[in-house]
Amino acid sequence: MSQRGTEAVERIFADRMPETARRIGSADDGKKLPLTPIIFGAGTFGHAYNDSRQLAETTIPEETIRRAFASGINAIDTSPYYRGSEAIIGNVLGDVNFRQQFPRHKYHILTKAGRYGADSSAFDYSANRIKTSVKESLRLLKTDYLDVVYLHDVEFVAEDVEDANAAGLHKAPRLLLNKQGRLEEKRWGLSKDMAGIVHGDGDRSILEAAGALFELKDKGLIRRVGISGLPLPTILRLARLILYHHKRPLDIVLSYAHHSIQNDTLGQWLPMLFDAGLLQVVNASPFSMGMLTRRGAPDWHPAPAQLRQAVRDLSEEIIKSHPPKGGLASDVQGHEAPRTTIERVALAYGLSSASPLAKQATVTAVGFSSPEEVEEALAVYELVYGKCSSAAALDEMTHWAVIAQERLTQAGFQDWIWAQPDPLIGKP
């Protein structure tokens, strides 16, 4: 991006956020975190996407984080599972010069606990391990508190009730009026009268780990407690289970690959998630773990071959309709990029809130590997949603999002989610 283009997106969020939204909340003020519409997904600094050892020897992580924070992005998300990521981030955040420019209270650190490797043996949700994990994250990230800690990939630990974790169309369950006239869900153990049922040892592990995080929150080491995972039925069931047994709700949930041009079911689940006491929901992976890109899904991606091909066909259709005419950035080979690509369509769609209701608005975690990727995301956001947004650009992105959903519906994969293989190497 040119210097002029860089200046155009400089601090596009910070300048619009009211002063009250910029202030960091207290340890338990009952309010959601004032996160910017885009937050920095730092799984890219881990083993799955880049060589973290090589990254640690370059200035790329510092340049990327500085670029994001200077642009107004005010949160960064990581995990012990993204091996090397926490240490790389901590080396940047702990630098004296960095702290002078970006004081700790100006940004949020979100990390996770409970998953430490690629297979089932690498999960440890015991209270002692969770507490040790959080303290290790504090050390690596060079901070004395964490704004959010999620239990990482809860579906691998919790019980799978009525195949809630299976591949398929996981649209919100049909709502029926019960005798009291209240809405009640009837699938996947989601009936309200089942909220407190512990279905096995996996559920007991979830409750033990959540209790450990609540204890650390009470001590001021954590500001918000959450869970992360893929299958929304399991996420909702566990949110209710934790509320029932701990008599206090989760603060936040990280959902991924459920608000994209391929799967947009998150919005259907939000009312029930917020009804379980949540303050906010973060949407991650608008590219569906790299699938919605010109490169296509990585080898480790669980998407079946038919879905991968449908996405490739869609990407080629977009490119053929938009030959290179300049753009917001060059592609990975340094060639002139097409004006509209599947990445831009996916990103523009994913950056929108999954809910039209302000109180249920979602923010989006986007993975960044370089300052150029930060600039590209900010430029797309500004072009479609910012102060200088273009009606033509919004129409263009909407047009292709509709076509994408039509093509994926024809292929049988619109709003379809894959099952989680175990082990799954490289999943964010």
UniProtKB/TrEMBL annotation:
GO terms for molecular function: D-arabinose 1-dehydrogenase [NAD(P)+] activity. One of its GO terms (biological process) is dehydro-D-arabinono-1,4-lactone biosynthetic process. InterPro entries: AKR (IPR020471), NAD(P)_OxRdtase_dom_sf (IPR036812), NADP_OxRdtase_dom (IPR023210). SUPFAM superfamilies: NAD(P)-linked oxidoreductase. One of its GO terms (cellular component) is cytosol. Residues 37-385 form the NADP-dependent oxidoreductase domain. This is NADP-dependent oxidoreductase domain-containing protein. The gene is Mo03789.
